């Protein structure tokens, strides 16, 4: 059986631009506050654990609501859904900018997150509906500007703002853009996504919240609290049990909240696996490079953010170009090329030392970003192309959810590897230094402090290098999977349910 994907005769570019702006400020806001956390700690007199909830809470709300977005997109018209989401985000932003206490600021961030969680899946569904399959690569490549550039420029922008202005300025700058987007949405948006009269299963929402929320919180906390902390392994266990129960429940339902049967489509399943692996490895650059730059080399946070900016700009420029290349050549050649570049550059990062220059790191990071720009969107779009139109909301919700969870898992894994190696190497170096000191006599306190600092820096550098090496091996696995990518038949605008076998001039379904 085949299913034809009906699309708009003429893509609603003006409407998509409005959705783009809304999604951009929402995703930008997710990373915008990270650099400002120390300033917020001082103003509200809270500790690091409490202030971290401004980021963790935002992520958890996203992790809980994104899986439910498939239901919302199918049940409600895209105009009313976007206006509601943008209204919540705007309300949260205004409240955050005037928050008198930390509790109010945290509540405002939750309101922001409840709006932003719906925007990304909604935008992706509108684009899948508005563009024919053979032009989706270009459309989704442009969409990559939102997905890639917004979180990448967040730390740089916020670092500059916090150094010169109050952290409240971060919200005050977003407010007029959010209000303008909301007004434009009220007057300009049209309904293009199909609706179905389905009912929400409350128990599925509860299971999804505990499942994805538990995994996100557990893995996100592992790097800080350690794997042996009851809160870490406890929430992960609750998350796994809830998620398994959710999957079995969804498979038995006629109209599931989140359709897990979409993994029967081989290209979607393969694209999801590659995207998960890339999301895990991607955090090595986002987390480990700033640690190396700031902690070991003593470079300022702003310069650390500026180091990553060229890479973000390259990804932004390349995203639409990659989309066009995908429409012409498919995802396989792009993914293999991009992953090969990522493997080489990530391996270079596993050979960091104390002498490598700032601009050399910037160059490697930028080339790595260039490779990354050739992978994420083409692979994801190729997988979504195989889904029937009715399953698009489930495909986008699943992709966004898996990226959230796999990102948290990847960060936890790499931080754990770094910490373990750092501790082991510090013990080795300390033992060697103590043995040397016994032979050469006592040392002054100043010399002892300097030696300990040098030992910790060298030990942490060893940990970072090992984490990058693990990240390299993870990307190798993605490269192996990329060789199995097959292009979905777009010659007739029909997505086949089975893999497509290409002959000399025609694409024939194995169905």
TrEMBL record:
The chain crosses the membrane at residues 12-33, 53-73, 80-98, 110-131, 143-161, 167-187, 199-219, 231-248, 268-293, 305-326, 333-350, 356-380, 459-485. It is a multi-pass membrane protein. Residues 15-490 form the Major facilitator superfamily (MFS) profile domain. It is found in: Cell membrane. Keywords: Cell membrane, Membrane, Transmembrane, Transmembrane helix, Transport. Pfam families: MFS_1 (PF07690). The keyword Cell membrane applies. InterPro entries: EmrB-like, MFS, MFS_dom, MFS_trans_sf. Belongs to the major facilitator superfamily. EmrB family. PANTHER family: MAJOR FACILITATOR SUPERFAMILY MULTIDRUG TRANSPORTER MFSC (PTHR42718:SF9). This is DHA2 family efflux MFS transporter permease subunit.
